Amino acid sequence: MTAVEEVPLSPAGNPIGFGNMKRVEDQRFVRGHGNYVDDVSLPGMVHGAILRSPFAHARINGIDTSRAEQLPGVLAVITGKVLEGIPRPDLLGDNFAWMPTLSYDTQAVLATDKVRFQGQEVAFVIATDRYIAKDALELIDVDYEPLEPVMDAKRAMEPGAPIIRDDKGQQDNSITDVHGHKDWESGNAIGTAEAIAAAQADPDCVVVTQEVMYPRVHPAPMETCGSVAFLDKVTGQLTLYTTSQAPHAHRTVYAMVAGLPEHKIRVISPDIGGGFGNKVGIYPGYVLSIVGSIVTGKPVKWMEDRNENLTSTSFARDYHMTGTIAATKEGKILAVDVDVLADHGAFNGVAQPTNYPAGFFHIFSGSYDYPNAHCKVTPVYTNKAPGGVAYACSFRITEAVYLIERLVDCLAAELGMDPAELRLKNLLRPEQFPYTSPTGWVYDSGQYENTMRLALEMADYDQLRREQAEKRARGEYMGIGLSFFTEGVGAGPRKDMDILGLGMADGIELRVHPTGKAVLRLSVQSQGQAHETTYAQIVAHELGIPPEDIEVVHGDTDQTPFGLGTYGSRSTPVSGAAAAVVSRKVKDKARQIAAAALECSPDDLEWQLGQWHVKGDPERAKTIQEIALLSHGSLELPDGVEGHLEATTVYNPPNLTYPYGCYVCVVDVDPGTGQVKVRRFIAVDDCGTRINPMVVEGQVHGGIADGIGMALMELIAFDEDGNCLGGSFMDYLLPTSMECPDYELGETVTPSPHHPIGAKGVGESATVGSPPAVVNAVIDAISPFGVRHADMPLTPANVWRAIQGRPVRVDMAVE
Amino acid sequence: MIPIAFDYVRPTTIPEAVAALVASGEDGKILAGGQSLMPVLRLRMAAPSVVIDCSEIADLQGVRDDGNSIVIGAGTTHHDVMNSPIVKEHSPLLAMATATVADPAIRHRGTLGGALAHADPAGDLPAVALALDGVLSVTGPNGSRDIAAADFFTDYFTTSMAEDEILVSVTLPKLGAGWGYHYEKFQRTAQGWAIVGVAAAVHRSNGNITAARIGLTNMAPSPVRASSVETALSGADATVKAVGDAAASAADGTRATSDLHAAADYREHLARVITKRAVLTAGGI
What we know:
The structure holds two protein chains of two kinds. Chain A is of the alpha+beta class. Helices cover about 25% and strands about 25% of the residues of chain A. Chain A has 20 helices and 34 strands. In chain A, the strands form ten sheets. Chain A has a seven-stranded mixed β-sheet, with helices on both faces. Chain A has a five-stranded mixed β-sheet with strand order 11-19-18-17-12, with helices on both faces. In chain A, α11 runs parallel beside α19 (about 765-780), α13 packs across α14 (about 460-475) and α18 (about 695-710) crosses α19 (about 765-780). Chain B is α+β, with helices and mostly antiparallel strands. Chain B folds into three domains: about 5-55, Uridine Diphospho-n-acetylenolpyruvylglucosamine Reductase, domain 2 (2-Layer Sandwich); about 60-175, Uridine Diphospho-n-acetylenolpyruvylglucosamine Reductase, domain 3, CATH 3.30.465.10; about 180-280, CO dehydrogenase flavoprotein, C-terminal domain (Enolase-like, domain 1, 2-Layer Sandwich), CATH 3.30.390. In chain B, strands 4-5-10-6-7 form a five-stranded antiparallel β-sheet, sandwiched between helices. Chain B has a four-stranded antiparallel β-sheet with strand order 11-12-13-14.
């Protein structure tokens, strides 16, 4: 795309449309002037703190709060028993001790009968300052009766395993979705089974089966979760400042949960310090800050510390996957069958469209052309923290891509074929788009081979293979890993997708002021995605108004129209489309007004960026700024055209968008220590039209760092007593710039045919695509030791064990 | 940080600090750079009645040349230690190991004495003090005394200092001519704690290794000398094979623990691999 050079610059030097532009948000962030939830301070505000369970599974025989209540400065101590006494007049439950999750399950706000994971919320103290609130926690006496914890999803499925959700009358630890299913299937079960059986019987075919675990990780946003709630008893207005990626959806859920009138709830998400899905769900702490304000009549702030965030808020992954891939000996893939045991923790808190119970895992068939694919996902309760939406997971596309990309590499090893060659043989071809996958998804556009060949060329793949051969000959272990991923992002069409009954279309409002400056009001919520910059560029692209003249408002339900928020890479595919559509509505209205002013027919006008002019006579023109003033002035308007220049729209996407990419990772493995060094990382992404390439590249950088972290070091592990071993950054390791290489980025541009500006979501692409590239590279490096697979995280210790052929269970503590 | 309430004093002399420590009974805690104490306070894993901030005591600061040895004030920051011309000339192993401690922000606050008195088994500097036969000078209500590094570190986060004593300085014999040195630190991330660390000083003469001093980090509740490696190296050929043979016994006598980062058998393996690398580098082999 050469759009960058063609775009005119504004007086401030910004592109009037698409192109590189510095993030306007950074002006305040780099000066330390961001305004986060913990910066909010209201008159008379008091502070809450949560007492959390030290046990993963225990019965509560009693809670004595009397000593805590007597501590000077303590205003109230709330327990599950207190909440049980507050009736809730709605369809989702009887009282305030339980709340609905985003998957139609229930979750304890404060434990009443049992605690079901270590770190679960047991009591809430409200005090005049944070120090007293914490002190009071130590004065609460809880009589726990420890029960056997279930920390392993496989153990949870065994007959006789302790029942975790006895509160629901469960007889086992299975999870039933809203449609009544315990196993969630997609694809063609019979055809896939037959194809695999035929391949097994055919001497010209191979069948490879591999168990692959994607262990539990945590998004670990820089800012932990928190809220400030104030119920004004005079006006009846509840104002909630909160770390939410979806303020409108949260408001509606609060209305349903609390029985409060929705029009009396204002949810404000100020600056958010990273989300990655961690801030999609509603946590007990948010609810407790609201209850606390109701009880005390004062604004109540609750803010997690790091340990609370890592141990109790939404994790990601925890998928035990078994994949079987069948192919001809020439390397033509025939079928893939997948069986998953999904560890959902103690409450099924996954945020996913109702009709897709395993999220978008159904894209597991990948980027390849074969007819038969089937998957079965069996979810299960364990004594771990709930969640599962988090960490840039694209509704579990991350797991799907990891599995298929590992399977393809295992197949390549079995066939003795180069993994690049094997992929090129099987990639979908351009003429197959729109392509209906074996599980029914319709991929919108793609030119996969071009993208892959660019990545191989940037990497100088053949030379890398020669270098590897030379190094192996002298006992050095270098690995080259590939991944090719396709995501389906931008949830989603209202005919297919809802969350808790809320459709996934997004509203937007655009208002052009008399002087030609504009304000755009979004429903989506930036957590670092640069919406204030890129949405202004979309309007600039459509209307020719300089981006610096466009204010983007978001994060306040009183100031913005309804929509489902930012996660799953849905902002650009849904709200980005809405921004283009609403701009076009304004442009159409501007044409009517320009025609009136120029005394001609609207049909006689043509658009040139920033103005309507008479066809063939650019001198007879009205700029968008002039039209804005005219629209507010005394010009006689045609029948049916109202004054002012503004529009609203609700965008219902016709399909998901399908970004894709090819990544190449080069690692060096120290065979003495097992240490992996990522030497190079080449990422070619095709996310369609790039609104702001610099912002795209920033997202890709972050996603690759995420992927390196998950592949090599990040892990939420537990010991068999149920203790979480990843509760601090000393143990939950995150990559720093020192562990990450210089990224080598490339792009191809295949616009989405159904998106108004041809853009696709990209926020999670690199998080999805990079872990398999890193793991494939490490396995490639140590394949001379006979290693075909080893689970993430590929820590030095785990690589050392793999080299020795010693299997390791990565998700449980070493003895 | 939301710690349990505590009193805070900031003495400017060593006697004042000792007096404050005595007055606090058993519940006083010395604050040097705060890089270990503050996290512990934040996590409410410590509840001192009084925190005695020693960062303003001038007599705890600085590095001086003392003839055959150098003396480093306990309150000298890592940053100042690693940049001291005296340390760099006469105890370059300490300078090198100090440069691997955490990150620049921490090295500007954290102190040598704090790191030694804290006695974290994963800390880098105790193994260096041990390998170099350092002597630690402490002061308490009954006066001052010197403790050899070999007698100082006794267990996890435990030293032979009495509860009312303060670490004042560290004396390190100068490394003379013919000594090479290296600190090899194995860590999972650049700013992470040592999974295993090896502090090695090697003396060479006429193609042979004449003496070696090797301290191991995080291979036991407190730092240990790899004595059998030192013995094997004494008089050994300065060859890769000889060093490898000697390093094979690096884990002998250690008591490595298992944790999330490494099982004991992996730590023992690392001790052998890293000792070999450290000695080869230190010996210029």
